[in-house]
Amino acid sequence: MSEKAIVEVKPITMYEAKKILSEAITEIGEPLYGQKICLDYLNKFAKLSPEEGKKIVEKVLEVNDKIRPEVAVKVSDLLPMDEEDVKIIFAKERVILDREEINMIVEICALYLR
Predict the structure, then answer these.
(1) Is 90 helix (H, G, I), strand (E, B) or coil?
(2) pLDDT score at 109
(3) Given this model, what pLDDT does residue 1 score?
(4) How far is Cα 67 from Cα 52, in angstroms, rounded to an integer?
(5) pLDDT for position 2
(6) In terms of DSSP H, where are the helices of the chain?
(7) Same-domain status, 104 and 62
(8) pLDDT in tens for each of the 114 residues of the chain?
(9) Residues 6 or more apart from 99 whose CB is under 8 A from it?
(10) 3: in domain
(11) pTM, full prediction
(12) Separation between Cα atoms, residue 60 and residue 49, nearest integer Å
């Protein structure tokens, strides 16, 4: 078996994970049990395209320059629908968002909710 090296570590949205996992399963054929469970979960919850997920992350990062990419990805994955949801996502973060920034994040997510 060939060894693979980790080239880069970066947070990805569940939409990107779904695409990567689907391509990997197509390449190898029959998925392993864990891959099948993961893909089932992603098919159930990842309803946006990878491009839409990336756009959300980019827009959230523009709201406040102190937002970490990992948290922006979490916002993209969870698509908070109100202020409380946003506050919960940012509860353990050192960045403090004002009401305007929270509303901007809710509005960004609302554009992609179907």
Answers:
(1) coil
(2) 97
(3) 54
(4) 19
(5) 67
(6) 14-28, 33-45, 50-63, 69-78, 83-89, 99-112
(7) yes
(8) 567 788 889 999 999 999 999 999 999 889 999 999 999 999 999 999 999 999 999 999 999 999 999 999 999 999 999 999 999 999 999 999 999 999 999 999 999 986
(9) 83
(10) no
(11) 0.88
(12) 17
Query: What are the CA-CA distances from residue 55 to residues 5, 33, 40, 92 (Å)?
Result: 29, 32, 24, 24
The beta strands (E) that lie in 13-70 are given as none
**Number of residues that this document lists for the chain:** 114
In this structure, the number of other CB atoms found within 10 A of the CB of residue 7 comes to: 5
Same domain for 56 and 95, yes or no, is yes
Q: Give the domain range for residue 41.
A: 14-45
Dihedral sign (CA 46, 52, 54, 55): negative
Q: Are residues 55 and 105 in the same domain?
A: yes
| Structure-derived torsion over alpha carbons of residues 42, 105, 11, 31, reported in degrees to the nearest 10 | 10
Query: What gap in Å lies between CA 96 and CA 40, rounded to an integer?
Result: 35
Total structural domains within the chain? 2
Whether 6 is covered by a domain: the verdict is: no
| 95 part of a folded domain | yes
